[in-house]
Amino acid sequence: MQFRVLIMLFVHLLLAGLSSVAYAEGVKSLETVRGHACYGFGDDQTPAQARRGAMIKAQEDAVRNHGVFVKSSSRIKNFQLEEDIIQTTSAAMLQEVTIEKEERKPQELCITLRAKISPISVEDMIKQRIAAKEIAQEVKTTLVPSQPKFGLKVWTNKPSGHFTEGEKLIVYVQSERDAYLKLDYFQADGTVTHLVPNLYRGQAFITGGKTYSFGDEASPEQYIINEPYGVEAIKAITGVRPFEAAADEAGATGDSRNYLGQLRGIKVVAATSSVELNTTSRTVAEYKKQSSKP
Fold first, then answer.
1. Could you give the CA distance from residue 203 to residue 182 in angstroms, rounded to a whole number?
2. According to CATH, where is 2.60.40.2550 located in the chain?
3. Taking CA atoms, which of 25, 35, 116, 134 is between 20 and 30 Å from 100?
4. For residue 264, what are the contacts with CB-CB under 8 A and spacing of at least 6?
5. Helix, coil or strand: residue 293
6. Do the Cβ atoms of 270 and 146 come closer than 8 Å?
7. Calpha distance 32→105 (Å, rounded)
8. HEC profile for 134-184?
9. What is the mean pLDDT of residues 157-175?
10. Which of 7, 33, 29 is nearest to 18 (CA)?
Protein backbone atom coordinates (compact mmCIF):
# COMPACT_ATOMS: atom_id res chain seq x y z
CA MET A 1 0.00 0.00 0.00
CA GLN A 2 4.01 5.21 0.30
CA PHE A 3 3.92 2.58 3.98
CA ARG A 4 4.69 -0.51 5.88
CA VAL A 5 2.38 -2.86 7.66
CA LEU A 6 3.93 -4.27 10.80
CA ILE A 7 2.70 -7.84 11.03
CA MET A 8 3.17 -8.74 14.64
CA LEU A 9 3.84 -12.22 16.00
CA PHE A 10 4.36 -13.99 12.71
CA VAL A 11 6.30 -12.09 10.06
CA HIS A 12 9.18 -9.66 9.74
CA LEU A 13 8.77 -6.94 7.10
CA LEU A 14 11.50 -5.37 5.01
CA LEU A 15 11.79 -1.65 5.79
CA ALA A 16 12.61 0.58 2.84
CA GLY A 17 14.45 3.90 2.85
CA LEU A 18 17.35 5.72 1.36
CA SER A 19 20.69 3.97 1.67
CA SER A 20 23.42 5.80 3.54
CA VAL A 21 25.24 6.45 0.25
CA ALA A 22 22.18 7.86 -1.49
CA TYR A 23 21.35 9.96 1.56
CA ALA A 24 24.86 11.42 1.69
CA GLU A 25 24.73 12.22 -2.02
CA GLY A 26 21.33 13.84 -1.56
CA VAL A 27 22.59 16.11 1.20
CA LYS A 28 25.54 17.23 -0.92
CA SER A 29 23.42 17.96 -3.99
CA LEU A 30 20.59 20.04 -2.56
CA GLU A 31 19.11 22.32 -5.20
CA THR A 32 17.30 25.62 -4.80
CA VAL A 33 13.71 25.83 -6.02
CA ARG A 34 11.41 28.83 -6.11
CA GLY A 35 7.66 29.12 -6.06
CA HIS A 36 5.08 31.89 -6.26
CA ALA A 37 1.38 31.89 -5.48
CA CYS A 38 -1.45 34.23 -4.55
CA TYR A 39 -4.29 33.30 -2.25
CA GLY A 40 -7.64 35.04 -2.41
CA PHE A 41 -9.63 35.21 0.82
CA GLY A 42 -12.96 36.45 2.05
CA ASP A 43 -14.08 38.44 5.05
CA ASP A 44 -14.59 35.26 7.05
CA GLN A 45 -10.88 34.38 6.88
CA THR A 46 -8.04 35.76 8.96
CA PRO A 47 -4.73 37.05 7.55
CA ALA A 48 -3.03 34.04 9.17
CA GLN A 49 -5.30 31.67 7.25
CA ALA A 50 -4.61 33.52 4.01
CA ARG A 51 -0.86 33.42 4.63
CA ARG A 52 -1.00 29.69 5.30
CA GLY A 53 -2.95 29.13 2.09
CA ALA A 54 -0.49 31.20 0.07
CA MET A 55 2.48 29.36 1.58
CA ILE A 56 1.03 25.96 0.70
CA LYS A 57 0.30 27.00 -2.88
CA ALA A 58 3.76 28.58 -3.28
CA GLN A 59 5.48 25.43 -1.98
CA GLU A 60 3.52 23.30 -4.41
CA ASP A 61 4.41 25.70 -7.23
CA ALA A 62 8.10 25.24 -6.33
CA VAL A 63 7.71 21.45 -6.57
CA ARG A 64 5.96 21.70 -9.94
CA ASN A 65 8.82 23.82 -11.28
CA HIS A 66 11.55 21.45 -10.13
CA GLY A 67 13.41 19.73 -12.95
CA VAL A 68 12.96 16.19 -11.65
CA PHE A 69 9.19 16.66 -11.37
CA VAL A 70 8.94 18.27 -14.83
CA LYS A 71 10.94 15.39 -16.36
CA SER A 72 8.58 12.81 -14.86
CA SER A 73 5.35 14.81 -15.13
CA SER A 74 3.86 12.85 -18.06
CA ARG A 75 4.20 9.49 -16.28
CA ILE A 76 3.03 11.02 -13.01
CA LYS A 77 -0.13 12.31 -14.68
CA ASN A 78 -0.73 9.02 -16.52
CA PHE A 79 -0.76 7.20 -13.19
CA GLN A 80 -2.89 9.94 -11.54
CA LEU A 81 -0.18 10.51 -8.94
CA GLU A 82 0.36 14.25 -9.45
CA GLU A 83 -1.44 15.49 -6.33
CA ASP A 84 0.02 12.74 -4.13
CA ILE A 85 3.61 13.41 -5.20
CA ILE A 86 3.30 17.20 -5.00
CA GLN A 87 1.80 17.04 -1.51
CA THR A 88 4.33 14.48 -0.28
CA THR A 89 7.25 16.54 -1.57
CA SER A 90 5.84 19.81 -0.24
CA ALA A 91 5.09 18.38 3.19
CA ALA A 92 8.16 16.25 3.84
CA MET A 93 11.00 17.01 1.42
CA LEU A 94 11.36 20.80 1.12
CA GLN A 95 14.08 22.17 3.37
CA GLU A 96 15.10 25.67 4.47
CA VAL A 97 11.89 27.26 3.19
CA THR A 98 12.39 31.04 3.12
CA ILE A 99 9.95 33.77 2.08
CA GLU A 100 11.59 36.14 -0.39
CA LYS A 101 8.62 38.43 -0.94
CA GLU A 102 5.19 38.84 0.61
CA GLU A 103 2.64 41.21 -0.89
CA ARG A 104 -0.72 42.00 0.66
CA LYS A 105 -3.58 43.25 -1.50
CA PRO A 106 -7.28 43.71 -0.76
CA GLN A 107 -8.68 40.18 -0.41
CA GLU A 108 -5.46 38.63 -1.70
CA LEU A 109 -2.03 37.69 -0.37
CA CYS A 110 0.90 36.74 -2.61
CA ILE A 111 4.09 34.93 -1.56
CA THR A 112 7.34 34.21 -3.36
CA LEU A 113 9.61 31.70 -1.62
CA ARG A 114 12.72 29.64 -2.10
CA ALA A 115 13.63 26.27 -0.63
CA LYS A 116 16.20 23.50 -0.83
CA ILE A 117 15.42 20.06 -2.16
CA SER A 118 17.34 16.87 -2.87
CA PRO A 119 16.81 15.82 -6.51
CA ILE A 120 18.03 12.31 -5.67
CA SER A 121 15.44 11.89 -2.92
CA VAL A 122 12.65 13.30 -5.09
CA GLU A 123 13.56 11.09 -8.04
CA ASP A 124 13.72 8.00 -5.82
CA MET A 125 10.31 8.81 -4.33
CA ILE A 126 8.73 9.37 -7.75
CA LYS A 127 10.14 6.08 -9.08
CA GLN A 128 8.88 4.23 -5.99
CA ARG A 129 5.37 5.70 -6.28
CA ILE A 130 5.12 4.87 -9.99
CA ALA A 131 6.44 1.33 -9.46
CA ALA A 132 3.95 0.77 -6.62
CA LYS A 133 1.09 1.97 -8.83
CA GLU A 134 2.19 -0.34 -11.65
CA ILE A 135 2.31 -3.32 -9.31
CA ALA A 136 -1.10 -2.50 -7.81
CA GLN A 137 -2.60 -2.40 -11.30
CA GLU A 138 -0.90 -5.67 -12.25
CA VAL A 139 -2.23 -7.31 -9.09
CA LYS A 140 -5.76 -6.60 -10.32
CA THR A 141 -5.21 -8.30 -13.67
CA THR A 142 -3.01 -11.23 -12.67
CA LEU A 143 -4.74 -14.56 -12.18
CA VAL A 144 -8.23 -13.48 -13.18
CA PRO A 145 -10.00 -16.67 -14.31
CA SER A 146 -12.01 -16.20 -17.49
CA GLN A 147 -14.90 -18.01 -15.81
CA PRO A 148 -14.54 -17.93 -12.00
CA LYS A 149 -16.10 -20.95 -10.38
CA PHE A 150 -17.62 -18.80 -7.64
CA GLY A 151 -17.57 -15.32 -6.17
CA LEU A 152 -14.86 -13.99 -3.85
CA LYS A 153 -14.63 -10.64 -2.04
CA VAL A 154 -11.82 -8.95 -0.15
CA TRP A 155 -12.13 -5.58 1.62
CA THR A 156 -10.72 -3.63 4.57
CA ASN A 157 -11.98 -1.78 7.63
CA LYS A 158 -11.79 1.53 5.70
CA PRO A 159 -14.02 1.56 2.59
CA SER A 160 -12.18 4.60 1.22
CA GLY A 161 -8.92 2.63 1.10
CA HIS A 162 -7.01 5.58 2.62
CA PHE A 163 -4.90 4.77 5.67
CA THR A 164 -2.66 7.04 7.74
CA GLU A 165 0.48 6.13 9.65
CA GLY A 166 -0.33 4.37 12.93
CA GLU A 167 -3.83 3.28 11.92
CA LYS A 168 -4.93 -0.32 12.24
CA LEU A 169 -5.63 -2.39 9.15
CA ILE A 170 -8.14 -5.24 9.17
CA VAL A 171 -8.62 -7.43 6.08
CA TYR A 172 -11.92 -9.22 5.43
CA VAL A 173 -12.50 -12.12 3.04
CA GLN A 174 -15.69 -13.87 1.99
CA SER A 175 -16.06 -16.72 -0.51
CA GLU A 176 -19.26 -18.11 -1.98
CA ARG A 177 -17.97 -21.68 -1.61
CA ASP A 178 -15.59 -23.68 0.56
CA ALA A 179 -11.98 -23.26 -0.61
CA TYR A 180 -8.36 -22.87 0.41
CA LEU A 181 -7.28 -19.25 0.79
CA LYS A 182 -4.11 -17.45 -0.27
CA LEU A 183 -3.83 -13.84 0.94
CA ASP A 184 -0.97 -11.57 -0.15
CA TYR A 185 -0.07 -7.98 0.68
CA PHE A 186 1.74 -6.03 -2.08
CA GLN A 187 3.55 -3.19 -0.37
CA ALA A 188 4.66 0.21 -1.65
CA ASP A 189 8.37 -0.65 -1.50
CA GLY A 190 8.03 -3.45 -4.07
CA THR A 191 7.83 -6.34 -1.61
CA VAL A 192 5.01 -8.80 -1.11
CA THR A 193 4.15 -10.28 2.28
CA HIS A 194 2.37 -13.63 2.36
CA LEU A 195 -0.32 -13.29 5.01
CA VAL A 196 -2.00 -16.66 4.42
CA PRO A 197 -0.76 -19.33 4.46
CA ASN A 198 2.35 -18.63 6.50
CA LEU A 199 4.79 -20.43 8.75
CA TYR A 200 2.74 -19.82 11.89
CA ARG A 201 -0.87 -19.68 10.75
CA GLY A 202 -0.65 -22.54 8.25
CA GLN A 203 -3.30 -23.34 5.68
CA ALA A 204 -6.62 -21.51 5.75
CA PHE A 205 -9.64 -23.47 4.61
CA ILE A 206 -12.58 -21.09 4.50
CA THR A 207 -16.26 -21.95 4.53
CA GLY A 208 -18.53 -20.53 1.85
CA GLY A 209 -20.74 -17.64 2.94
CA LYS A 210 -18.73 -16.90 6.10
CA THR A 211 -16.75 -13.67 6.58
CA TYR A 212 -13.18 -14.07 7.83
CA SER A 213 -11.13 -11.25 9.32
CA PHE A 214 -7.36 -10.90 9.62
CA GLY A 215 -5.83 -8.31 11.93
CA ASP A 216 -8.78 -7.79 14.28
CA GLU A 217 -8.65 -8.19 18.05
CA ALA A 218 -9.18 -11.96 17.83
CA SER A 219 -6.43 -12.52 15.24
CA PRO A 220 -2.92 -13.73 16.13
CA GLU A 221 -1.56 -11.02 13.81
CA GLN A 222 -2.03 -7.26 14.01
CA TYR A 223 -1.44 -4.87 11.09
CA ILE A 224 -0.34 -1.29 11.79
CA ILE A 225 0.36 1.21 8.99
CA ASN A 226 3.97 2.37 8.83
CA GLU A 227 6.51 3.52 6.21
CA PRO A 228 7.05 3.55 3.31
CA TYR A 229 3.78 4.93 1.94
CA GLY A 230 1.91 4.97 -1.35
CA VAL A 231 -0.37 2.77 -3.44
CA GLU A 232 -0.58 -0.81 -2.21
CA ALA A 233 -2.81 -3.83 -2.83
CA ILE A 234 -4.14 -6.91 -1.09
CA LYS A 235 -5.00 -9.94 -3.21
CA ALA A 236 -7.10 -12.92 -2.20
CA ILE A 237 -6.88 -16.17 -4.18
CA THR A 238 -8.92 -19.32 -3.62
CA GLY A 239 -8.15 -22.80 -4.83
CA VAL A 240 -9.36 -26.37 -4.65
CA ARG A 241 -6.06 -27.56 -3.20
CA PRO A 242 -3.84 -26.20 -0.39
CA PHE A 243 -1.32 -23.52 -1.32
CA GLU A 244 2.35 -23.93 -0.47
CA ALA A 245 3.36 -22.02 2.67
CA ALA A 246 6.72 -20.38 3.32
CA ALA A 247 9.17 -22.80 4.90
CA ASP A 248 10.77 -20.15 7.12
CA GLU A 249 10.53 -16.48 8.09
CA ALA A 250 12.77 -15.45 5.20
CA GLY A 251 10.17 -16.75 2.78
CA ALA A 252 7.41 -14.63 4.30
CA THR A 253 8.36 -11.69 2.07
CA GLY A 254 9.68 -11.39 -1.46
CA ASP A 255 9.90 -9.29 -4.61
CA SER A 256 6.46 -8.34 -5.92
CA ARG A 257 7.23 -8.56 -9.63
CA ASN A 258 8.97 -11.93 -9.38
CA TYR A 259 6.08 -13.25 -7.32
CA LEU A 260 3.45 -12.01 -9.78
CA GLY A 261 5.24 -13.97 -12.47
CA GLN A 262 5.09 -17.09 -10.31
CA LEU A 263 1.38 -16.64 -9.66
CA ARG A 264 0.59 -17.02 -13.33
CA GLY A 265 1.75 -20.62 -13.10
CA ILE A 266 -0.79 -21.60 -10.43
CA LYS A 267 -3.31 -24.04 -11.89
CA VAL A 268 -5.64 -24.46 -8.94
CA VAL A 269 -7.17 -20.98 -8.91
CA ALA A 270 -10.94 -20.91 -8.60
CA ALA A 271 -11.48 -17.18 -7.96
CA THR A 272 -9.49 -14.04 -7.19
CA SER A 273 -10.26 -10.63 -5.77
CA SER A 274 -8.13 -7.61 -4.82
CA VAL A 275 -8.45 -4.27 -3.03
CA GLU A 276 -6.23 -1.21 -3.49
CA LEU A 277 -5.00 0.88 -0.57
CA ASN A 278 -3.35 4.28 -0.36
CA THR A 279 -1.26 4.90 2.73
CA THR A 280 0.06 8.23 4.02
CA SER A 281 2.46 9.43 6.71
CA ARG A 282 1.20 11.61 9.56
CA THR A 283 3.24 14.53 8.18
CA VAL A 284 1.56 14.38 4.77
CA ALA A 285 -1.86 13.72 6.33
CA GLU A 286 -1.51 16.87 8.45
CA TYR A 287 -0.36 18.84 5.40
CA LYS A 288 -3.41 17.70 3.45
CA LYS A 289 -5.62 18.65 6.39
CA GLN A 290 -4.10 22.13 6.53
CA SER A 291 -4.31 22.63 2.76
CA SER A 292 -8.02 21.75 2.78
CA LYS A 293 -8.83 24.37 5.41
CA PRO A 294 -10.14 27.78 4.27
1. 8
2. 4-14+137-282
3. 25
4. 142, 143
5. coil
6. no
7. 28
8. HHHHHHHHCCCCCCCCCCEEEEECCCCCEEECCCEECEEEEECCCEEEEEE
9. 96
10. 29
| CATH class (in words) of the domain with range 30-117 | alpha beta
Query: Cα(279)–Cα(276) distance, rounded to whole angstroms?
Result: 10
CA distance from start to end of the chain: 30
C-alpha gyration radius of the chain: 22
pLDDT in tens, 232-282: 999 999 988 888 776 556 567 889 988 888 887 777 688 889 999 999 999
In this prediction, residue 25 has a pLDDT band, given cuts at 50, 70 and 90, of very low
Query: CATH for 4-14+137-282, among 2.40.10.340, 2.60.120.380, 2.60.40.2550, 3.40.50.300?
Result: 2.60.40.2550
pLDDT tens-digit readout, 119-140:
999 999 999 999 999 999 999 8
* Torsion 215-221-224-227 (CA) sign: negative
Secondary structure of residue 115 in the 3-state scheme = strand
Query: What stretch(es) of the chain map to CATH 3.10.129.140?
Result: 30-117
| 3-state SS record for 189-249 | CCEEEEEECCCCCCCCEECCCCEEEECCCCCCCCEEEECCCCEEEEEEEEECCCCCCCCCH
In whole angstroms, what is the distance from residue 123 CA to residue 46 CA? Answer: 37
* pTM of the full structure: 0.80
Pick from 52, 48, 125, 60: which is nearest to 94 by CA? Answer: 60
Query: Pseudo-torsion of CA 55, 66, 85, 74, nearest 10°?
Result: 130
Amino acid present at 6: L
